[in-house]
Write a structure and sequence with these properties.
This protein has 540 residues and is α/β, with parallel strands linked by helices. Helix content is 47%, strand content 11%. It is globular and about 75 Å long. Bound molecules: glucose-6-phosphate (G6Q).
């Protein structure tokens, strides 16, 4: 049955009509126990969701809707390797990549855990050889620069995690992430590197992606030219992370230097597979295993904790509440950590590529809202930029505030000031400042309307001890499972991404227009004019 036709959904809609104007100021003053009942501490996370436009009744109704969607069974289907990505007929088993228990995980009757462990051991060996200086470039010098070439799921996760955990990184090594096909990306990167001290990690599940293969070929030419055409240089300057052995060999990479993963690992869920190799090389094997253990621990929490105490599940339900009942189009993710500068960009892919769907699992068009627009920026920078619109604009934008009690650097009173801002923002968003309060401050009457803050802007507060590899793992897995929860409720396949295909196909056609007689007459008039303008204005 379509979710919006279910009784649980109708109950939520009726409840929404009752409480849609309730103000957080009143909800807090009416219920002294509110923060206790609408917050929990687990997995090293203080999750405070009391500053949401909900009551205990809202949560009850949302939890019922979750039960009615078959979520419990779907969670088990994912963890046990059922082919839940049905449009590609694949299991979805990123959780097996960080399964640190002794439990086997079966795909088509075969335990995948021995393969997972073998790749981790191979990654350990490689990362230790590079970190110790044992791995040498063509001139005999140790490696100093590591350039990951990949895009989408083969870039955003490791780029985000390498930056997030840079405090733990080996400072002798420099890490770069090249993704864009714009030649500025590879050009500006290699300008900073000496070829004989540079190792390229070519990260591509398919090993056919246009951007990655184009950048990889340019990197190969650069190395070969520097090595005086010595083709053996490819072996000491390139390794591959892929599922495609044949294409890796054809590129010239020895398959002994290929780190394998499998079709049951989706690109945007692949950070804990071989795709994490640059991260392991940066922070070392032990720290990487701590990252995996954080993921594993949150996986267990999601799989085994009752719905009403399940952090990712509750986050998913709150997102549904704003998306489908309040009509919110966007969701802000605001980490108060410079190390998490790229976290929201990473989440944009994880969330929007997973749940930006308008056909349900049975191929039927969907008549309700699915995935939100995810956006944000590290605090406090965002406060001096777009927070104005969240506070006083006309849109309702639910937000997650992510913060840490302890800083890794402990310089002066930076941390106190950072966190004072963190708490102040959620307070201001929830409670605002009334006209009366503004007037009482002696404000000139003409200015009062400009200085009023309506408040009633919902936030989740996610507070952890400090940014350790383990806590980062928990945080990422928490969002992965939030996305899963919402995908189940909206009845979409969160694990395919057909929406990326059409653009790729058309770009191939247009590329051939550049070398042929001119723009294909089958193009629409606008595209034809643009393509011809481009051709005519190229420098000869
Ligand atoms: C992620 C998507 C996509 C993919 C890239 C790179 O879930 O599938 O972002 O990761 O297109 O693909 P390759 O790793 O195959 O180069």
């Amino acid at each position: 049955m379509i979710i919006t036709e279910r009784e649980e959904w109708r109950n939520l809609a009726a409840h929404y009509e009752k409480i849609k104007h309730a103000h957080l100021r009143d909800l807090f003053s009416e219920d002294k126990n509110r923060t206790e009942s609408l917050s929990l501490f687990d997995e090293g996370i203080l999750f405070d969701y009391s500053k949401n436009r909900i009551t205990g009744e809202t949560m009850k109704l949302l939890l019922r809707a979750a039960e009615a969607s078959g979520l419990a069974e779907k969670i088990e289907d994912m963890f046990s390797g059922k082919p839940i990505n049905q449009t590609e007929n694949r299991a979805v088993l990123h959780t097996a990549l960080r399964n640190l228990s002794n439990e086997p995980v079966f795909v088509d009757g075969r335990d995948v855990m021995p393969d997972v462990r073998a790749v981790l051991a191979k990654m350990k060996d490689f990362s230790e050889r590079v970190r110790s200086g044992q791995w040498r470039g063509f001139s005999g010098k140790p490696i100093k620069n590591i350039v990951n070439i990949g895009i989408g799921g083969s870039d955003l996760g490791p780029a985000m995690a390498a930056e997030a955990l840079s405090f733990y990184a080996d400072r002798k090594l420099n890490f770069f992430f090249v993704s864009n096909i714009d030649d500025a990306h590879i050009a500006e990167t290699i300008r900073m590197c000496a070829p004989d001290e540079t190792l390229f990690i070519i990260a591509s599940k398919t090993f056919t992606t246009q951007e990655t293969m184009t950048n990889a070929e340019s990197a190969k030419s650069w190395i070969l030219e520097a090595a005086g055409g010595n083709r053996c240089a490819t072996a000491s300057h390139f390794v591959a992370l892929s599922t495609n052995t044949e294409a890796v060999s054809a590129f010239g990479i020895d398959t002994a230097n290929m780190f394998e993963f499998w079709d049951w690992v989706g690109g945007r869920y692949s950070l804990t597979s071989a795709i994490g190799l640059p991260v392991m090389t940066a922070i070392g094997y032990d720290n990487f295993m701590a990252l995996l253990s954080g993921f594993h621990s949150m996986d267990n929490h999601f799989r085994r904790t009752s719905f009403d105490k399940n952090i990712p599940l509750l986050m998913g339900l709150l997102g549904v509440w704003y998306n489908n009942f309040f009509g919110c189009e966007t969701h802000a993710v605001l980490p108060y950590s410079q190390y998490l500068r790229r976290f929201t960009a990473y989440l944009q892919q994880a969330d929007m590529e997973s749940n930006g769907k308008s056909a349900d699992r049975n191929g039927q068009p969907i008549a309700y809202q699915t995935g939100s627009v995810v956006w944000g920026e590290a605090g406090t920078n965002g406060q001096h930029s777009f927070y104005q619109l969240i506070h006083q604009g006309t849109k309702l934008i639910p937000a997650d505030f992510i913060g840490f009690v302890n800083s890794l650097n402990a310089i002066g009173d930076h941390q106190h000031k950072l966190m004072a801002n963190f708490f102040a923002q959620t307070q201001a968003l929830a409670f605002g400042r009334t006209g009366q309060e503004v007037t009482a401050l002696g404000t000139a009457p003409a200015l009062v309307p400009h200085k009023v803050f309506a408040g009633n802007h919902p936030t989740n507060t996610i507070l952890m001890d400090k940014l350790t590899p383990e806590n980062l793992g928990r945080l990422i897995a928490m969002y992965e499972h939030k996305i899963f929860t919402q995908g189940v409720i909206w009845n979409v396949n969160s694990f395919d991404q057909w929406g990326v295909e059409l653009g790729k196909e058309l770009a191939k056609k247009i590329l051939s227009d550049f070398t042929g007689a001119g723009a294909d007459s089958a193009h629409d008039a606008s595209t034809k004019k643009l393509v011809n303008f481009y051709r005519d204005n190229r420098q000869k």
